[in-house]
Amino acid sequence: MQIYWTKINKIIEETPEVKTYLLDCPEGFTWEEGSHTHFALEGFNAGDKPNRGLIRHMSISTLPHENAIGISTRIKEQCSEFKSILRNLEVGNEVAIFKTHSNVPLKREDKNVYLLSSGVGQATFRPLVLEYFERADNVNLIHSLNIDSSKYFLFTNIFKSAPDKKFTAQFVDNRKDYYEEVKNLAADKDGLFYIVGSDEFIVQNIEVLREQGIRPEQIMLDKREQQLPEFFSFDLSI
User: InterPro entries of this UniProt entry (predicted)?
Assistant: First the structure.
């Protein structure tokens, strides 16, 4: 396993609780849209065993041509040790990244794509939207639906409807409106539905989509293949 040590190049305050850390690109480090990585703080590998408290699984919110590895995360006032340390890091501090992989690259199957996210889950989808804007081949359209009760919506400079590009961005701040809209989107029985958020959020979305007749193979999750049965197990009773 190769560990890439790199420096924080810039810190962007996206909202009062969400920061994006832009990291220098180490030589030889590559990734694609929809990638996640293990993001670790200094000292995580200082002992005999890795200190898992200093490691988090994070989505990369940028594309390689942006020349920075973007890590966007919510840091609340009351937070974990990891987030507390992260909040105090500055430009120039070192962090580590390793085990980078994409579970949700943009599928080009001549279908409509629906991006369903909660809060900072939008960070996973930012590169997919940018990739689509650059090359729309074999994607009919993209519709993004994001729920954030804080009403501080992310990346609104990118997630804004562009009819000429066949891209629609929709934001809601409550569950009732959100799930009503998911049901409306599920009227497209041939669409591809990507879901990013907490495990509870993912399960609720799958339940709604399956009740509307969407098949498991149409639902993309930012999870390893061996984890997928956990999220679709309730299907056995349907």
Answer: FNR_nucleotide-bd, Riboflavin_synthase-like_b-brl
